[in-house]
Design goal:
Blueprint lengths: L1 H30 L9 H11 L9 H24 L17 H12 L9 H4 L2 H31 L9 H26 L9 E5 L5 E5 L3 H10 L20 H26 L2 H28 L2 H4 L18 H14 L14 H13 L8 H21 L4 E2 L2 E2 L2 H31 L10 H16 L14 H30 L16 H32 L2
Helix pairs in contact: 1-9, 1-12, 3-4, 3-6, 3-17, 4-17, 6-7, 6-8, 6-9, 6-17, 7-8, 8-9, 9-10, 9-12, 10-12, 10-13, 10-18, 12-13, 13-16, 13-18, 14-15, 14-18, 15-16, 15-17, 16-17, 16-18
């Protein structure tokens, strides 16, 4: 067990140690400075030339938003058509997997276009090689690139002394894919392939089991898809069981590499904020706030899983063993808990254990991670969500000290606070309304058949599904039968609203701040990098999550915990 705990510390320290230099590199990419990846410039110029795009054209926040939304509509349309007519073309479909049902195609196209990767289909049995690579894998690059580019626009808006130019979304998105995501994905894919992750186009292979039976086993181009699914906080698995599957995550070394990949870019973007604005101390304070929450959640989850399941003890079975239900022996309880916290803290959504089988408090921690949706968070959008909490905390702290709040030398006024408040409220609104609708539906018509677990755990499954969709996460409590028109449409709509409104709102805020005249700092100015403000910020984050979601948690994970 001590070895398992050491593994948890190793993964976290590796993530932080790699994130710091990566943050410096990301800033060079954002600024257009010379980097070792300049050899990719001809490819980028070709993309812009074919597309007829001027990557150097300055844009304000509205122009960037129109561009971001427009190109994402095209991503969705392409994905929907490719899925709806998957079986109607001959490309890379050796086992002849057919067309998708329309609501499932809608849900999955939205899911991958929004960087959520909620999977209501079963991996390799539902998607052809063409779909896996040229739809899902490609969308995992461009959706992650969209989030990173949006974060770069936010940084530029905060840095502007006065002026509306935030940069060029096209330029930032393409370079996020070619200069950041692609090199890292190549390195990770090689590590995975060397350790046994499949990378072939051989279709189904016949394998003789130890019992002498012949079974058909699916392989495929798994390594490249797993690499970008982790680095881009996408989480969409090549196989239905995701990273519990030995072809996706063969051993403890690949588990370390994949878990580090989940945390790497979200952490690096926090450091990149400090390098870009030359506010390293403030960035470290932000990182510290996130890390306090992350370590606390990890400690609770690890301790609960190591302690074991009291329901097993009630059956007269020895209780000196960890809760290994739904977990892989090659990883263990501690590494599974760390992954669970990592994947929900970062909106990654991949799993190396079944979250539905974790103890109630551990499952509740995963949901709390997604309720906050800003502890490191997804690539780009995680810091953007965190920025909203900063705005609210600055406003509250300003009222406490009796002065007009300001952020980085710009006055925070009613317009900015209203936008931040509305976007912060949107997240619990989507989750709680969605959960209420699903609860009402199953109560009124139990014959719907998608809820197999009655009582508190069944409520938790519905709460988790709506939370995962709103947090752009994609993981699930898999006791829920979610491939139905109701769930496909409900979560599809939630994913759309929860992805784009929280991007539009913060960029509208920085668009407003960027054109304001700076105000000089005085002795009475709020010190954002102080322990006092860090305390206010943590309080705001915890209180918002607690007040909005505590009643739902009482009906789900907490009620289940106290009825063990």
């Amino acid at each position: 067990m001590n070895t398992e705990i050491l593994g948890v510390f190793l993964i976290f320290l590796l993530s932080v140690g790699l994130a710091w230099p990566l943050g410096k590199y990301i800033v060079k990419v954002f600024r257009g400075e010379k980097t070792w990846t300049d050899f990719l410039s001809p490819l980028e110029r070709l993309i812009f030339k074919i597309s007829g795009i001027d990557p150097n054209q300055p844009m304000d926040w509205k122009q960037n938003m129109k561009t971001l939304l427009g190109i994402n509509v095209l991503f969705f349309v392409f994905a929907f058509l490719a899925l709806a007519f998957q079986g109607s073309h001959p490309f890379w479909n050796p086992v002849n997997i057919g067309n998708w049902e329309p609501t499932l195609a809608f849900n999955t196209a939205v899911s991958f276009a929004t960087n959520t990767n909620l999977q209501h289909y079963s991996g390799e049995s539902g998607a052809s090689y063409f779909t896996q690579l040229l739809v899902f894998c490609w969308l995992q690059f461009v959706s992650a690139g969209t989030g990173i580019a949006a974060c770069a626009l936010l940084f530029q808006g905060l840095k502007n002394r006065t002026g509306s130019n935030l940069g060029n979304f096209y330029n930032l998105m393409v370079k996020s894919c070619t200069r950041i995501l692609l090199p890292l994905a190549v390195v990770l894919a090689v590590i995975l392939m060397v350790n046994g992750t499949t990378a072939n186009f051989e279709g189904l292979a016949e394998v003789t089991t130890l019992e002498g039976e012949i079974v058909q086993v699916a392989g495929g181009p798994t390594a490249p898809m797993v690499a970008i699914k982790q680095l881009g906080t996408n989480g969409g698995g090549y196989f239905g069981p995701n990273s519990t599957h030995p072809f996706e995550n063969p051993n403890y070394l690949t588990n370390i590499a994949e878990n580090v990949a989940i945390l790497l870019i979200p952490m690096a973007l926090v450091f990149a904020f400090g390098f870009f604005l030359n506010r390293k101390k403030l960035a470290l304070m932000f990182f510290g706030v996130m890390t306090v929450l992350f370590i606390t959640f990890t400690a609770v989850s690890v301790s609960e899983e190591i302690k074991g399941n009291p329901a097993i003890a009630a059956m007269g079975i020895a209780t000196d063993q960890s809760n290994m239900e739904g977990k892989e022996v090659r990883f263990g309880a501690a590494a599974s808990s760390l992954w669970g916290v990592s994947t929900t803290a970062t909106s990654n959504g991949s799993v190396n254990s079944m979250h539905d089988s974790h103890t109630p408090l551990s499952g509740g921690i995963f949901m709390l991670d997604m309720f906050i949706n800003a502890v490191y968070g997804g690539v780009g959008v995680g810091f953007i969500n965190f920025f909203l909490f900063v705005i609210v905390a600055v406003f509250i702290a300003g009222q406490m000290i009796g002065r007009t709040p300001d952020l980085l030398g710009k006055k925070i006024e009613a317009r900015e606070v209203k936008i931040a408040a509305m976007v912060v409220i949107l997240h619990p609104l989507l989750i709680l309304v969605g959960t209420a609708m699903s609860s009402y539906g199953i109560v009124q018509d139990p014959s719907l058949g998608w809820l197999k677990n009655p009582g508190f755990h069944g409520f938790s499954e519905m709460l988790y599904e709506n939370t995962s969709a709103s947090a752009n996460n994609g993981s699930g409590f898999e006791g829920l039968g979610d491939n139905t028109p109701f769930w496909n449409i409900l979560t599809g709509v939630i994913m759309l609203l929860a992805r784009y409104i929280p991007i539009i709102g913060p960029l509208a805020i920085v668009g407003s701040l960027s054109v304001k005249n700076p105000v000089p700092a005085t002795a009475g100015s709020l010190q954002l990098d102080s322990p006092a403000f860090a305390t206010v910020l943590i309080s705001v984050i915890v209180i918002v999550a607690a007040l909005a979601f505590f009643p739902a948690m009482v009906l789900g994970p907490l009620a289940e915990y106290y009825t063990f």
